[in-house]
Amino acid sequence: MDELTIPQEFDPEQFVTVARFEDPVEAQMAKGMLESSGVECFLQGENANQLLGAAFRARLMVHRKDETSARELLPAEDNGQGRGEETSEDEA
């Protein structure tokens, strides 16, 4: 493997947003729910949200291979922002 080649499981292009949250507590709860179900995930923008809550939303990110499972586990009404909102990698 070339030193400059990024393994697919670590490639930022392989991660998708499955939900967005204004409330950091709700974001942490959703993250915990996915993790307890075995879905690896992380929050992006969580700390920026604390500075200007109305301007920033925490994004719950999962690997593309886990996207379907994550969307099935998350409630449909995730802050009215999460499911059904397709986010491209360009926004990352």
Note down, in words, how this protein is organized.
This protein is α+β, with helices and mostly antiparallel strands and 92 residues long. The chain has a single domain, classed as Alpha-Beta Plaits (2-Layer Sandwich), CATH 3.30.70. Helices cover 28% and strands 18% of the residues. It is built from three helices and three strands; from the N terminus they run E-H-E-H-E-H. Strands 1-3-2 form a three-stranded antiparallel sheet.
Poorly predicted ranges: 79-92
Question: Sheet with the most strands?
Answer: 3 strands, antiparallel
> Multimeric state of these chains?
single chain
What's the CATH C level?
Answer: Alpha Beta
**Terminal Cα separation, in Å?**
26 Å
State the helix count.
3
Total domain modules: 1
Question: How big a fraction of the residues is strand?
Answer: 15-25%
Q: Got a strand count?
A: 3
Q: Biggest sheet: strands side by side, in what order?
A: 1-3-2
Question: Descriptors for this entry?
Answer:
single chain, 92 residues, alpha+beta, Alpha-Beta Plaits, three-stranded antiparallel beta sheet, 3 helices, 3 strands, disordered C terminus
Sequence-ordered SSE layout with sheet pairings:
Elements (H helix, E strand, L loop, with lengths): L14 E7 L2 H13 L4 E4 L1 H6 L6 E6 L3 H7 L19
Task: Summarize the entry for a quick read.
The longest helix has 13 residues, at 24-36. The model is unreliable at 79-92 (pLDDT under 50). Helix content is 28%, strand content 18%.
